[in-house]
Every structure is written in C-alpha cells, then in structure tokens.
Amino acid sequence: MLNFLPSSIVGAIAGLLLVVNVLFWITVLFVFTIPKILLPWPPLLKVINKILQWIGENWIAGNSGWMWLTQKTVWDVQGAEKLNYNGWYLVVSNHQSWVDILVMQHLLNRKIPLLKFFIKRELIKVPFMGFAWWALDYPFLYRHNSEYLKTHPEQQGKDFEATRKACEKFATIPTSVMNFLEGTRFTEEKHDRQKSEYKFLLRPKSGGLALALNVLGEKFNSLLDITIVYPDGIPTFGDFLCGKVKRITVRMRTLEIPNQLLHGDYEGDPAFRDAMHKWVQKLWRDKDKQIQTLMKKTKSK
Fold this sequence. Notes:
Blueprint: H1 7-38, H2 42-70, E1 74-78, E2 88-93, H3 99-108, E3 115-117, E4 119-120, H4 129-135, E5 140-141, H5 146-151, H6 158-169, E6 176-179, H7 188-194, H8 207-216, E7 220-229, H9 237-241, E8 247-255, H10 270-299
Parallel strand pairs: 1-8, 2-6, 2-7, 3-6, 4-5
Antiparallel strand pairs: 7-8
Helix pairs in contact: 1-2, 1-4, 6-8
C-alpha cells in the first residue's frame, strides 16, 4: 500500500499504472480484433468474443491491482453474493462520477459477465478507449435531446436501432448490459434544472432499458440494481487516483423482471410505455430512499 505517500505522488503512480495497464491490454485486444474484422464467420466470432471478454476481465483485474496498491478506501459492500458468472444480467445504477465505473468493474469482475455500458457515440473518438469499447461491442448511442430531434427528425430512432443491434450480438454469449438510467452524471445544477422529484437522483430514462428487454428479455436472469454512495462527497476521477476517496458504500440487489415488460413496443404502445415508466419510477423511488438511509448511517459513524 502506497497511500502513506503525498496525494500528488499517489496520483502520479496510480495514473502511470492506469495508462500502462490500458496500453498493454489494448495492444492485446487489437491483435484479436483483426480476425474479428477480417473473418466475420459466426463460429469463429463466438470464440473470438470469448477471448475478448477474457482480455477485458484481465484489464479490469489490472485496474483492481493498482487500486489495491495505491488506495486506502474502506469498502462497505452488500449484495454481491450468489451472482452468476454464466448468466445474463441487466444492470442499472445511479451515476455521480467516472469513479462509478471503476467501482462496479472492481466489485463485479468475474462474478458476472463483463459489463457492457451504453456509451455516448462521440466517445468513440477517445484515443485508444474508443477502439476498445468498439471491439468489446459496447453500445454507442446518439442521445439526441427532444429539441434537436424536432429540427432533425431523420435522427429519430437511431438510439433504439443502435441498442437493438448491440443487444442482438449479446444473445450468443453471457453478457451484462449496463445502463445508467439518468443518462448523465448527477450534479446539483442538473438536479435543479430538471426539478427532479428525487432528492439524490436525476430523473430516469426507460427507453434503452425497454429496448434491451425487448431484444433479450428472456435471456436476462434478473435485474441487478446497484446503489453507490460516497459518504464523504462525490469524488472526481482525480480525487480517486490521488487516494482521497476514503469510503465507498455499495448496495446490490437482484430483482425479478416483470414478465409483461420482457417484450413490448415502447415507441408504439402507450400502455406498455406507461407500465415501463411506472416500474422504473418505483425502482428510483426505492433507490432514493435507500441513499438517504445510507447517508444518515455513514454520517453517524
């Protein structure tokens, strides 16, 4: 453990190890992606995708390694027991920081299949990482707002088509489809602008969730609902690298997905859309209460 060093030095070491880990595994990923591009034969693709998943898991294990070496975080985690590595999971979580991704990957690696996040399409341009996300079949979404769609109606439905194509690929190998339902990281400014009815959350969006269920509904063993709380305040990624995140509280629960939501026309069926909204809103009300309870408990310690 190197956390006894000054935070700036800890951050430099953690950042260097992070970069080395990224470059090494992206190089390996590139080698195995070439035949995936040149020889798109389904039986071969199934084998290659398993190899790519193994690479992704080792990449995450490398991140856990430098986290163990440089961080002094106290983890309070419940609900990660009895998860199934060979199952399909639909995963949702609140979203506050880029640190959320490292937290979930660290806690879930090799307990469930490799997490596949919904990613904004513009992030495909991120050096190295954009290629890695593409090679690992992460769904890239446009996420156009309603005002943009009014002036560019031809873009309507592109997110759903991108999600559908990505989810169809996931049907051949156990996968965990991860969706931040809020669509963006929580800030007080966004919360106030939305006039969100939740105290600790932004309003959830259920469209991507509905489409994933429509394509792969019967594959999913359950919904894995994750709640992340930072008792000492929401950290930046830099704070985490520098070892300034002293406590992280995580609660997980697996929920049965209602049968009536496994397949339905979210865009064209108002009754189905209303049922999906009500289910997601109930999920979010419960999460908001849970965060409030966890915050009270951690403040009393």
